[in-house]
């Protein structure tokens, strides 16, 4: 009788160990999936940045050039107005 009692006590331990092993394997699978998704996300992000950033910088360069031309135009108009005003002050 004691042997039968000992065997029934070992079965729950074996079952729990089997469950722990199954959960450990599942956790490792989930970790592998997670790491793969990180890798895929990183690759997609880098690709999108490499494809998109040159266009952003080209647009910014064009905008900066237009702004520079506008400021130079305003500056030149103000300068010519000041020069004209100075000439009027010299003439009687």
Search tags:
mainly alpha; Protein ALTERED PHOSPHATE STARVATION RESPONSE 1; single chain; rod-shaped; 97% helix; 92 residues
Structural class call reads mainly alpha
Q: Largest sheet, if any?
A: none
| Overall pLDDT level | 87
Cα radius of gyration in angstroms: 39 Å
Q: Into which percentage range does the β-strand content fall?
A: under 5%
Spatial gap, N to C terminus:
133 Å
How many DSSP helices?
1
Order of helices and strands: H
Fraction of helical residues: over 70%
Using the alpha-carbon principal axes, give the shape. Answer: rod-shaped
Number of strands: 0
Topology at a glance:
Layout: H1 2-90
Structural overview:
Residues 8-24 have a biased composition (Basic and acidic residues). This is Protein ALTERED PHOSPHATE STARVATION RESPONSE 1. The chain has 92 residues and is mostly helical. It contains 1 helix and no strands. The protein is rod-shaped and about 115 Å long. It starts with a helix and ends with a helix.
How is this structure best summarized?
With 92 residues, this protein is mainly alpha-helical.
């Amino acid at each position: 009788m004691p042997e039968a009692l000992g065997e029934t006590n070992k079965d729950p331990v074996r079952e729990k160990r089997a469950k722990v092993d199954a959960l450990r394997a599942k956790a490792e699978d989930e970790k592998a999936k997670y790491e793969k998704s990180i890798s895929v996300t990183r690759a997609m992000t880098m690709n999108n940045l490499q494809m998109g950033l040159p266009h952003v910088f080209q647009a910014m360069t064009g905008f900066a050039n237009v702004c520079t031309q506008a400021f130079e135009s305003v500056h030149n108009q103000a300068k010519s107005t000041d020069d004209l005003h100075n000439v009027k002050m010299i003439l009687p």
